[in-house]
Write a structure and sequence with these properties.
181 residues; DUF4337 family protein; DUF4337
């Protein structure tokens, strides 16, 4: 009465072990990539917020400089030389501040773009690794080694983009990213 229940493992235990190992390895790699990708997205959000704040501050500083230049001109016409000179100095100070703010805003925008390209690499990695995971699962169902090889091919592309993202390599298929965006 106590018959052992056979697990439906299929005829090819070796293939099933390779599939299981592949699934575990891909899951670990995907988890590590996801952590890094999330950190990059957080850095992008901070860059975007900084860029917006800096451009707003730049615009207000430009307005202050314009107001001070207008004041200097009006005071000059009223022969209030000292007040006109003071207003001109303030305008020059604001222009200097605006120049620094513009440089900071542009640096934040540039950093955002660099991080965006890295985020694309991690997104592509996640996509190819997900495909590899799904194909590996199918390999176990159809008991086909060649299907597992297709999964390994997709995993190779996923790992390539993951390494490129971590190492900041210039591997970025713009056409594929544009198509998927």
């Amino acid at each position: 009465m106590s018959e052992g229940i056979d697990a439906p493992e299929g005829n090819d235990r070796r293939l099933n072990r390779m599939v299981a190992t592949t699934v575990v390895a891909l899951s670990v790699v995907m988890a590590v990539g996801k952590i890094k990708d999330d950190n990059i997205v957080q850095a992008m959000q901070a860059d975007q917020a900084a860029k917006i704040d800096l451009w707003g501050e730049y615009q207000s500083t430009q307005i202050k400089a314009h107001d001070q230049m207008t004041a200097a001109l009006l005071l000059g016409r009223l022969n209030a030389v000292e007040d006109s000179a003071r207003a001109a100095q303030e305008a020059a100070r604001y222009k200097g501040e605006a120049s620094g703010l513009k440089a900071q805003a542009m640096a934040a925008a540039d950093d955002y773009d660099v991080q965006g390209r890295r985020d694309d690499q991690f997104d592509l990695s996640d996509g190819f690794l997900s495909i590899a995971l799904a194909v590996a699962a199918i390999a176990a169902l159809v008991e086909g080694f060649w299907v597992l090889c297709v999964a390994w091919g997709a995993a190779t592309l996923g790992i390539l983009f993951l390494v490129a993202g971590f190492a900041q390599l210039p591997i970025h298929p713009d056409a594929l990213v544009a198509f998927l965006s």
